[in-house]
Amino acid sequence: xxxxxxxxxxxxxxxxxxxxxxxxxxxxxxxxxxxxxxxxxxxxxxxxxxxxxxxxxxxxxxxxxxxxxxxxxxxxxxxxxxxxxxxxxxxxxxxxxxxxxxxxxxxxxxxxxxxxxxxxxxxxxxxxxxxxxxxxxxxxxxxxxxxxxxxxxxxxxxxxxxxxxxxxxxxxxxxxxxxxxxxxxxxxxxxxxxxxxxxxxxxxxxxxxxxxxxxxxxxxxxxxxxxxxxxxxxxxxxxxxxxxxxxxxxxxxxxxxxxxxxxxxxxxxxxxxxxxxxxxxxxxxxxxxxxxxxxxxxxxxxxxxxxxxxxxxxxxxxxxxxxxxxxxxxxx
Length: 332
Ligand SMILES: [Zn+2]
Hints:
3 domains, alpha/beta, five-stranded parallel sheet, single chain, Rossmann fold, 57% helix, binds zinc ion, Zinc Finger, Delta Prime, domain 3, 332 residues
């Protein structure tokens, strides 16, 4: 779209049209999952704001557009925490002083906070006066996965745009254009990313994830088995991988979902196609009823994990709850 590859055209088109007419807010929050493409959209909006051809902004041809696209426009400022964890008060004081200087090159100045959640409370307070009474040329864009990381006083000054997940077919097409990988891997990355194309790219290059996928499948087979000793093995595995616990649970849910597809004769819907033979075998051994139960219990385990429950205890109790379903079935 207008020379940039973005994923939210429908959301951005009205914003760009209104920027041509000068009907814009001074502060925006771009909220959406990590890797969904908010930064791309913010940069496109910045192109439109600084373009010298108002009627067709961003024209892609004027010197301002060319600079903005090259990332060298002096009036498009990206604020990041750099190699620190947070953006503090001092950085914001420098910035607010700088905001008061008129644009160097274009009619507007755009400030993009690449990860607004990295702004400390003090930094946000230091910014407040500027966003309450900004110079008429200044536009602020706060990018965040969760706008509750911003103070209510900041939020109330901003127009929020929600960036939804990208449809998985579209993510696959994007990955196909940029990565020479087998189709099944692209499909897996698209689904596993939850509709976040940039996250999907990181998944593709994450070799550690491949190991985790294999070991998670081994552990899942143990969770589903009827031997108690296997439950302990699965709990040990989960404890070892506690840093990536949420990812392991996501992988388990995807495998379980695939097994359910197989047991419902819908093999085409399987996502982990590279593991198909193993999944088929496991699905046949477990049965539809226990699978449904295992999915419910794994969703519960996911909630528990978010509450910082001890990983080993969480996995063990998951295994026992799944086994209990077995026992009930045998009795009944
Ligand atoms: Zn232009």
